[in-house]
Amino acid sequence: MNDTVVTLVGNAATGVDYRETPTGGVARFRFAVTPRRWDRRNSAWTDGSTSFYTVCAWRSLGANLTASVNVGDPLVVHGRLRVRDETLDGQRRTFVDIDAVSIGHDLTWGTSAFKRVARAITALTERPVDMSAAASAANAATAGNGSGSGSGPGPGSVGKPVHTQPWLSEQDESAAPVGAAGVPTGPL
């Protein structure tokens, strides 16, 4: 893979435009990056020339971006750099786009409150689980000690919970609905 990956720090220059496409939703906005330099001669900070980029964010990143970013927000954008040349009105123009992988507020300039979004389609994010093997393991764990509250590992054990999805924290996993086999069944 020979992509050029960049991280840019700047401000949202336009509002976020979100559209549904056959391959998933996409959000686009213009991103302004203005370098600041210390001018020794005048002993003051000066602004360099502003560079503008078109940032594209696909699927859930695009949907979350639409709900989170306003014009002028300081952002950090990380993604793949794309440079394209087009001829418009007889003139050649160069456009620089960023296919975003990650976008966040620049906390140097303010605070932010993160809110986890419940996903509507969990089949794309869950690990495949063989329900028959999980159900037999749960039955064996509860049958071995009678009450299902023994000290051994398993869904019925007392103590630290067994993580069926290691990327979730204990708090997130305990809040998720649990099926018969001890596997969370609700959206993340």
Largest sheet: 5 strands, mixed, barrel
Order of helices and strands: EEEEEEHEEHH
Give, in spatial order, the strands making up the sheet with the most strands.
1-3-6-8-7
Over the alpha carbons, how many angstroms does the gyration radius reach? 24 Å
Distance between the termini: 31 Å
**Percentage of residues in helical conformation:** 10-25%
Secondary-structure class: alpha+beta
Question: What does the overall shape look like?
Answer: globular
Strand content: 35-45%
**Average pLDDT for all residues:** 76
- Count the E strands: 8
Number of helices: 3
> Which regions contain 5 or more consecutive residues with pLDDT less than 50?
144-184
Structural write-up:
It contains 3 helices and 8 strands; from the N terminus they run E-E-E-E-E-E-H-E-E-H-H. By secondary structure, the protein is an alpha+beta fold. The strands form 2 sheets. It has a 5-stranded mixed β-barrel with strand order 1-3-6-8-7. The chain has a two-stranded antiparallel ribbon with strand order 4-5. The longest helix has 15 residues, at 131-145. The chain is globular. 10% of the residues are buried. The model is unreliable at 144-184 (pLDDT under 50).
Q: What's the structural blueprint in terms of helices and strands?
A:
Blueprint: E1 5-12, E2 17-21, E3 24-33, E4 36-39, E5 44-47, E6 51-58, H1 59-68, E7 74-88, E8 91-105, H2 131-145, H3 170-175
Parallel strand pairs: 6-8
Antiparallel strand pairs: 1-3, 1-7, 2-3, 3-6, 4-5, 7-8
